[in-house]
UniProtKB/TrEMBL annotation:
PANTHER family: MAGNESIUM-DEPENDENT PHOSPHATASE 1 (PTHR17901:SF14), MAGNESIUM-DEPENDENT PHOSPHATASE 1 MDP1 (PTHR17901)
Phylogenetic lineage: Eukaryota, Metazoa, Chordata, Craniata, Vertebrata
Name of the protein described by the UniProt record: Magnesium dependent phosphatase 1
Stored InterPro entries: HAD-like_sf, HAD_sf, MDP_1_eu_arc
Any Pfam family: Acid_PPase
Signal peptide: none
Entry's Gene Ontology molecular function annotations: acid phosphatase activity
Organism: Pipistrellus kuhlii (Kuhl's pipistrelle)
Length: 128
């Protein structure tokens, strides 16, 4: 089986949702019984359409999810074991230098980018 990341890290604005937020939302996110997604303060978040399924998919694979701030100190996961999704090319360039597998998101996170990202990660970590 292909190797999976030990942590999936997401940029937020224009990667998980189609707007900028300042300090208005607080991860982690939870899916409510009515199907809406809320942050840790109970505020409803409108996400790109396939994002809930993307997050569920990672959960099903046993890959923890983190937002793109304060991430490495807390988790202790090596950069080489992370996959990172972001819409901004300059972040992709910078974070790539750390040894993280970086995936550029053009029009919001979706399942196709998830699959592509996991394939890219697995290829980068394939044994001889
Ligand atoms: Mg962004």
């Amino acid at each position: 089986m292909a190797q999976l990341p030990k942590l999936a890290v997401f940029d937020l604005d224009y990667t998980l949702w189609p707007f900028w937020v300042d300090t208005h939302v607080d991860p982690p996110f939870h899916k409510s019984s009515d199907g809406s997604v809320r942050d840790s303060q109970g505020r409803t978040i409108r996400l790109y359409p396939e994002v809930p399924e993307v997050l569920d998919r990672f959960r099903g694979l046993g890959v923890p999810i983190a937002a793109a701030s304060r991430l490495q100190k807390k988790t202790g996961v090596p950069f080489s074991q992370m996959i990172f999704f972001d819409d901004e090319k300059r972040n992709i360039v910078d974070v790539s230098k750390l040894g993280v597998t970086c995936i550029h998101v053009h029009n919001g996170m979706n399942l196709q980018i998830l699959t592509q990202g996991l394939e890219t990660f697995a290829k980068a970590h394939a044994g001889p």
